[in-house]
Amino acid sequence: MKFFLDTANVDDIRRIDSLGLVDGVTTNPSIIAKEGRDFEEVIKEIASITSGPVSAEVIALKADEMVAEAHQISKWGENVVVKIPMTEEGLKAVHILSQEGIKTNVTLIFSVSQGLMAMKAGATFISPFIGRLEDIGSNATELIADLRKIIDMYQFDSEIIAASIRTPYQLESVSKLGAHIATIPGELFPKLWTHPLTDQGIQSFLADWSKFNK
Ligand code: G3P
Q1: What residues form the catalytic site here (predicted)?
Q2: Residue 51 contacts by C-beta under 8 Å, 6 or more apart in sequence?
Q3: Three-state DSSP class for 129?
Q4: Does residue 50 contact residue 4 with C-beta atoms inside 8 Å?
Q5: Closest CA to 106 of 125, 81, 132
Q6: Is 103 a catalytic residue?
Protein backbone atom coordinates (compact mmCIF):
# COMPACT_ATOMS: atom_id res chain seq x y z
CA MET A 1 0.00 0.00 0.00
CA LYS A 2 1.17 3.53 -0.76
CA PHE A 3 0.85 6.69 1.34
CA PHE A 4 0.46 10.10 -0.22
CA LEU A 5 0.68 13.28 1.81
CA ASP A 6 -2.45 15.43 1.46
CA THR A 7 -0.79 18.82 1.83
CA ALA A 8 1.07 21.60 0.03
CA ASN A 9 3.25 22.31 3.07
CA VAL A 10 6.79 21.55 1.96
CA ASP A 11 8.13 21.35 5.55
CA ASP A 12 5.60 18.60 6.35
CA ILE A 13 6.48 16.80 3.10
CA ARG A 14 10.23 16.90 3.85
CA ARG A 15 9.68 15.77 7.48
CA ILE A 16 7.45 12.79 6.63
CA ASP A 17 9.53 11.93 3.56
CA SER A 18 12.61 11.61 5.79
CA LEU A 19 10.80 8.72 7.55
CA GLY A 20 10.29 6.90 4.25
CA LEU A 21 6.51 7.30 4.43
CA VAL A 22 5.80 9.44 1.35
CA ASP A 23 5.02 7.83 -2.03
CA GLY A 24 3.40 10.95 -3.50
CA VAL A 25 1.45 14.11 -2.70
CA THR A 26 -2.09 15.32 -3.33
CA THR A 27 -3.34 18.89 -3.21
CA ASN A 28 -6.60 20.68 -3.92
CA PRO A 29 -7.45 24.39 -4.29
CA SER A 30 -8.24 24.72 -0.54
CA ILE A 31 -4.90 23.12 0.43
CA ILE A 32 -2.99 25.40 -1.97
CA ALA A 33 -4.84 28.51 -0.69
CA LYS A 34 -3.91 27.58 2.91
CA GLU A 35 -0.19 27.89 2.11
CA GLY A 36 -0.62 31.36 0.53
CA ARG A 37 1.97 30.56 -2.15
CA ASP A 38 1.96 30.72 -5.93
CA PHE A 39 0.28 27.56 -7.30
CA GLU A 40 2.87 26.79 -10.00
CA GLU A 41 5.84 27.54 -7.72
CA VAL A 42 4.63 25.29 -4.89
CA ILE A 43 3.71 22.37 -7.18
CA LYS A 44 7.14 22.57 -8.87
CA GLU A 45 8.85 22.54 -5.47
CA ILE A 46 6.79 19.55 -4.25
CA ALA A 47 7.47 17.68 -7.50
CA SER A 48 11.19 18.15 -6.92
CA ILE A 49 11.02 16.81 -3.33
CA THR A 50 9.19 13.56 -4.15
CA SER A 51 9.59 11.43 -7.25
CA GLY A 52 6.08 10.04 -6.70
CA PRO A 53 2.88 11.39 -8.26
CA VAL A 54 1.93 14.97 -7.26
CA SER A 55 -1.72 15.88 -7.90
CA ALA A 56 -2.57 19.48 -8.84
CA GLU A 57 -6.20 20.38 -9.48
CA VAL A 58 -7.75 22.37 -12.34
CA ILE A 59 -10.07 25.29 -11.54
CA ALA A 60 -12.01 25.31 -14.85
CA LEU A 61 -15.40 23.62 -15.09
CA LYS A 62 -15.67 23.24 -18.90
CA ALA A 63 -13.91 20.27 -20.54
CA ASP A 64 -11.96 22.30 -23.11
CA GLU A 65 -10.75 24.72 -20.42
CA MET A 66 -9.84 21.84 -18.09
CA VAL A 67 -7.81 20.27 -20.89
CA ALA A 68 -6.02 23.57 -21.58
CA GLU A 69 -5.24 23.97 -17.85
CA ALA A 70 -4.11 20.34 -17.68
CA HIS A 71 -1.67 20.92 -20.53
CA GLN A 72 -0.04 23.72 -18.49
CA ILE A 73 -0.10 21.90 -15.13
CA SER A 74 1.38 18.70 -16.59
CA LYS A 75 4.44 20.67 -17.74
CA TRP A 76 5.34 21.56 -14.12
CA GLY A 77 7.03 18.19 -13.52
CA GLU A 78 7.24 14.71 -15.01
CA ASN A 79 5.49 13.33 -11.93
CA VAL A 80 2.66 15.89 -11.89
CA VAL A 81 -0.84 14.40 -12.19
CA VAL A 82 -3.84 16.54 -13.13
CA LYS A 83 -6.73 16.42 -10.67
CA ILE A 84 -10.14 16.72 -12.34
CA PRO A 85 -13.52 17.04 -10.57
CA MET A 86 -16.09 14.26 -11.06
CA THR A 87 -18.56 15.89 -13.48
CA GLU A 88 -19.71 15.19 -17.03
CA GLU A 89 -17.30 17.86 -18.28
CA GLY A 90 -14.61 16.34 -16.08
CA LEU A 91 -15.13 12.89 -17.61
CA LYS A 92 -14.86 14.39 -21.09
CA ALA A 93 -11.57 16.03 -20.12
CA VAL A 94 -10.26 12.80 -18.54
CA HIS A 95 -11.08 10.87 -21.71
CA ILE A 96 -9.15 13.39 -23.87
CA LEU A 97 -6.20 13.58 -21.45
CA SER A 98 -5.92 9.79 -21.11
CA GLN A 99 -5.68 9.50 -24.91
CA GLU A 100 -2.87 12.07 -24.77
CA GLY A 101 -1.03 10.08 -22.08
CA ILE A 102 -1.60 12.71 -19.36
CA LYS A 103 -2.24 11.15 -15.95
CA THR A 104 -5.40 12.16 -14.11
CA ASN A 105 -6.83 11.89 -10.61
CA VAL A 106 -10.63 12.14 -10.60
CA THR A 107 -11.63 13.78 -7.34
CA LEU A 108 -14.80 14.27 -5.26
CA ILE A 109 -16.05 10.70 -5.74
CA PHE A 110 -18.83 9.70 -3.37
CA SER A 111 -20.48 6.67 -5.02
CA VAL A 112 -19.63 3.41 -6.78
CA SER A 113 -21.21 4.63 -10.02
CA GLN A 114 -19.09 7.79 -10.02
CA GLY A 115 -16.01 5.63 -9.52
CA LEU A 116 -17.05 3.35 -12.38
CA MET A 117 -17.55 6.28 -14.75
CA ALA A 118 -14.12 7.70 -13.90
CA MET A 119 -12.39 4.33 -14.38
CA LYS A 120 -14.11 3.81 -17.72
CA ALA A 121 -13.18 7.32 -18.93
CA GLY A 122 -9.51 6.46 -18.30
CA ALA A 123 -8.65 7.94 -14.90
CA THR A 124 -5.21 6.97 -13.59
CA PHE A 125 -6.43 7.52 -10.01
CA ILE A 126 -9.88 7.84 -8.47
CA SER A 127 -10.34 9.68 -5.16
CA PRO A 128 -13.31 8.65 -2.99
CA PHE A 129 -13.70 11.01 0.01
CA ILE A 130 -14.01 9.02 3.23
CA GLY A 131 -14.32 11.74 5.89
CA ARG A 132 -16.86 13.82 3.99
CA LEU A 133 -19.06 10.74 3.40
CA GLU A 134 -18.92 9.82 7.09
CA ASP A 135 -19.80 13.45 7.93
CA ILE A 136 -23.22 12.81 6.37
CA GLY A 137 -23.62 9.35 7.92
CA SER A 138 -22.79 7.25 4.82
CA ASN A 139 -20.80 4.04 4.85
CA ALA A 140 -17.56 5.20 3.29
CA THR A 141 -15.48 2.10 3.89
CA GLU A 142 -17.98 -0.05 2.00
CA LEU A 143 -17.41 2.26 -0.98
CA ILE A 144 -13.68 1.46 -0.93
CA ALA A 145 -14.33 -2.30 -0.77
CA ASP A 146 -16.82 -2.12 -3.67
CA LEU A 147 -14.53 -0.02 -5.87
CA ARG A 148 -11.60 -2.40 -5.25
CA LYS A 149 -13.77 -5.40 -6.08
CA ILE A 150 -14.81 -3.80 -9.39
CA ILE A 151 -11.23 -2.86 -10.33
CA ASP A 152 -10.03 -6.42 -9.71
CA MET A 153 -13.05 -8.09 -11.34
CA TYR A 154 -12.87 -6.08 -14.58
CA GLN A 155 -9.12 -5.36 -14.61
CA PHE A 156 -9.47 -1.57 -14.69
CA ASP A 157 -6.11 0.24 -14.62
CA SER A 158 -7.26 2.95 -12.17
CA GLU A 159 -5.90 3.00 -8.61
CA ILE A 160 -7.96 4.06 -5.59
CA ILE A 161 -6.69 6.98 -3.52
CA ALA A 162 -8.70 6.97 -0.28
CA ALA A 163 -8.97 10.72 0.42
CA SER A 164 -10.45 12.91 3.15
CA ILE A 165 -8.84 10.64 5.78
CA ARG A 166 -8.98 12.30 9.20
CA THR A 167 -8.59 9.55 11.80
CA PRO A 168 -6.29 6.55 12.39
CA TYR A 169 -9.39 4.31 12.33
CA GLN A 170 -10.31 5.54 8.83
CA LEU A 171 -6.80 4.79 7.61
CA GLU A 172 -6.87 1.31 9.17
CA SER A 173 -10.26 0.61 7.56
CA VAL A 174 -9.30 1.66 4.03
CA SER A 175 -6.03 -0.29 4.35
CA LYS A 176 -7.90 -3.49 5.20
CA LEU A 177 -10.42 -2.96 2.40
CA GLY A 178 -7.94 -2.64 -0.45
CA ALA A 179 -7.36 1.04 -1.20
CA HIS A 180 -4.19 1.10 -3.30
CA ILE A 181 -3.24 4.44 -1.75
CA ALA A 182 -4.33 6.58 1.20
CA THR A 183 -3.70 10.30 1.11
CA ILE A 184 -3.10 11.56 4.62
CA PRO A 185 -2.94 15.13 6.00
CA GLY A 186 0.37 16.04 7.68
CA GLU A 187 -1.23 16.60 11.09
CA LEU A 188 -2.64 13.04 11.17
CA PHE A 189 0.75 11.31 10.86
CA PRO A 190 1.90 11.74 14.50
CA LYS A 191 -1.38 10.11 15.64
CA LEU A 192 -0.52 7.13 13.42
CA TRP A 193 2.86 6.42 14.95
CA THR A 194 2.20 7.24 18.61
CA HIS A 195 0.46 5.25 21.35
CA PRO A 196 0.26 6.15 25.07
CA LEU A 197 1.41 2.66 26.08
CA THR A 198 4.55 3.10 23.94
CA ASP A 199 5.35 6.35 25.76
CA GLN A 200 4.62 4.78 29.17
CA GLY A 201 6.77 1.78 28.26
CA ILE A 202 9.75 3.96 27.35
CA GLN A 203 9.40 5.89 30.62
CA SER A 204 9.28 2.72 32.76
CA PHE A 205 12.19 1.07 30.89
CA LEU A 206 14.33 4.19 31.42
CA ALA A 207 13.30 4.45 35.10
CA ASP A 208 14.23 0.78 35.71
CA TRP A 209 17.51 1.18 33.80
CA SER A 210 18.53 4.20 35.88
CA LYS A 211 18.05 2.14 39.11
CA PHE A 212 20.89 -0.17 38.03
CA ASN A 213 23.09 2.53 36.51
CA LYS A 214 23.50 5.13 39.22
O1 G3P B 1 -7.81 14.85 -0.79
C2 G3P B 1 -9.06 15.41 -0.50
C3 G3P B 1 -9.03 15.89 0.90
O4 G3P B 1 -8.07 16.85 1.00
C5 G3P B 1 -10.29 16.39 1.46
O6 G3P B 1 -10.17 16.30 2.83
O7 G3P B 1 -10.71 16.77 5.18
O8 G3P B 1 -11.18 18.49 3.40
O9 G3P B 1 -12.55 16.42 3.56
P10 G3P B 1 -11.23 17.04 3.81
Answers
A1: 83
A2: 79
A3: strand
A4: no
A5: 125
A6: no
Q: Tell me, what amino acid is at 171?
A: L
User: Is the pTM above the cut of 0.85?
Assistant: yes
Whether 105 is in the pocket of ligand 1, judged by its Cβ within 6 Å, is no
> What is the number of residues in the chain?
214
List beta partners, residue 183.
Answer: 4
What's the CA gap between 102 and 90, in Å, rounded?
A: 14
Element of type H or E holding 81: strand 80-85
Pocket test of ligand 1: the residue of 4, 5, 28, 166 to mutate, having most ligand atoms within 8 Å of its CB, is 28
Contact between 56 and 40 (Cβ < 8 Å)? no
Q: How far is the CA of 198 from the centre of ligand 1 (A)?
A: 29
